[in-house]
Amino acid sequence: METKKEIFDKYKDKYYEAKAALGKRKVLTKIIDTVRDVTGMGRKAIIRAFNRKQKQDPCHEEKRGRKVYYKPDVTAALKDIWEIGSEVCGELLHPMIKEYVSILIKDKMWKHGDVATGKLLAMSAGTVKNRVGNFLKARRKGRGVSSTSPSLLKHIIPIFHGDWNTKPVGTGQIDTVVHCGHSLVGDLAFTLNYTDVSTLWVLMRAQWNKGQHATQESLEYIKSKLPWPMIEVHPDTGSEFINWLMKTWCDLNNIKMSRSRPDHKNDNMHVEERNGHVNRKFVGYIRLDCIETVPVLNDLYEVLCLYLNHFVASKRVIEKYEIDGKWKKRYEKVGKTPYQRVLEHDGIDEIIKEKLRQEHEKLNPLVMKNEIDRLKKAVYDVQKKYGKSRDLVKIS
Q1: Mean of the pLDDT values across residues 258-272?
Q2: Which of 70, 26, 32, 347 has the alpha carbon at shortest distance from 198?
């Protein structure tokens, strides 16, 4: 399709010739009508545009408006950082740009020039947000299927729906995500999600089905991977959590157990939002109905959890208030990674912080993102090879 500039360049000679000659008003009208039909411009606007081109210096191409400061080289650099950051929104990406660039430069993996790099580092949060908005595309494939069901044991475990800001480090919300595609029929892979309330530190473990023993073993593994002691777990009313085996395990390990109110997902908001932002984003809605996918999925989570905790920022709600019957939320101005929240937390021992600093120095977000993509493809390949179902989604 021709641009407006090309249309005017195509007809300008005929237009000027007809305008200069006598008795060619019909030709002039026909040219204007043709340009109008193609461009959608008004007749007066077309006449003014032709007049401007006639007065324009042929050796000087007119460019109206402000000069472009962030040129394609800066946009390319920003897009690379955005992809390394798992395509998060501009508000969460902006505080991480400096760290991403410094790590890539240190590891000699940064391919952009000094000018583009300088402009990228100086880019404001608003500009990043606007430009990332052009990158974002709809990636949600649809809604998942819930596998949560109540248990008769639920009245034994107390309900908590108060202020989570008062909870200490080591208090975690837990939930399971089923990889079922569009049907819950048959045996399936599940993922147990753990999110620390104070720091938003996330850990995940894949398991086969959601039996009591499998869930307890997954939680035991997560407990061993936590940088600090686990002191409380908070699930929903699912039968994989509300059972005597899990209650006994918590009591033996001096772990307090509370639960959400039935049909109140927002009581478990920290982990519920990560079901979509993490599991559905990185694994998708594919049906995993072969046990061979579980170890591969756990290999993926080993890298993914490190990546999320050290390099993906998020914003917390700092105030919630009601106006005219509608709830409004105010978020932190600058997003932070769970790693940054740990370093700023006064309740975490300095030995733990130093251990995490040493771990952080060895990590590279680009290398980790490439490994995540490779392992994600490996999960799909295993399902395609051994799975009983062809309910596969397209790998982006």
Answers
A1: 79
A2: 347
